């Protein structure tokens, strides 16, 4: 069994999240959020004998993509077991060591007492030390207050999600005539006392992206749904970015997860055909992760044509 240890525990600085993000976007000329969703069923066979396969996988993905990454977005669903949590901690520290902010996609919220525990993910000392998190507005302001109170952290409120069922509730028309997602955007704007609130709006709903950009021009968006979900990358850029006072770049994130991290499968590197210790392993591994890097670079360039 091999081990991948991660000694670098550099954490992000204390500047406001969207300022740090603006600096990162400028440094790499990219608004790409690389989603780290290491589905254990898709980890290549050449990594399955490592101590923590998800961490081994993420480390290689970060090595291959960090020059194109404005941030990394691990989804908590892929880490909710003891080994997963260890893999997540190593991944966060490693991303920070490359100066890339980490946005935990956890869609949290609860009564205040519980929300305070959830929000500790944003703490450096007794939490995960992530830079930003996604939250669910369904339980109202008090359920989000502990997150909002982390003034230096980013808090992305689910507004109009990218999944087909996003319309079931979010498109419902209120008595005022506005759809629920527009009310959520207005509330998020109201809750933005510390300038740390953003919205999650899917690239699969470009018309809603456009409307929301007009109603809350100052809120940065996290736009998932390009890549595997087939969303509109151009609309994601055109309507997903917000001007950041004092910065030359417009701020926002366009996320792709499977389309980047599993790009190596399309390159013929599923890892299924060659044993973990096989002679072809180094070549296969290099080709697999090179494909991820190329996919991130392609998406960066495509998005940059519309910035
Ligand atoms: O509306 C939403 C909110 C979150 N997500 C998350 O983003 C990634 C997308 O993954 P892909 O592989 O690029 O489809 C994933 O973690 C989702 O849970 C979303 O897709 N839509």
Automatic annotation (TrEMBL):
UniProt enzyme class: lyase
Database matches in SUPFAM superfamilies: Ribulose-phoshate binding barrel (SSF51366)
Active-site positions on this chain: 107
Annotated metabolic or biological route of this protein: Pyrimidine metabolism; UMP biosynthesis via de novo pathway; UMP from orotate: step 2/2
InterPro entries: Aldolase_TIM, OMPdecase_AS, OMPdecase_type-2, OMPdeCOase_dom, RibuloseP-bd_barrel
Keywords (A to Z) from UniProt: Decarboxylase, Lyase, Pyrimidine biosynthesis
Example GO molecular function: orotidine-5'-phosphate decarboxylase activity
Enzyme Commission number(s): 4.1.1.23
Transmembrane among keywords: no
Annotated catalysed reactions: orotidine 5'-phosphate + H(+) = UMP + CO2
GO biological process: 'de novo' pyrimidine nucleobase biosynthetic process; 'de novo' UMP biosynthetic process
Domain Orotidine 5'-phosphate decarboxylase, first and last residues per copy: 31-273
Assigned protein family: Belongs to the OMP decarboxylase family. Type 2 subfamily.
HAMAP family per the UniProt record, alphabetical: OMPdecase_type2 (MF_01215)
Protein name: Orotidine 5'-phosphate decarboxylase
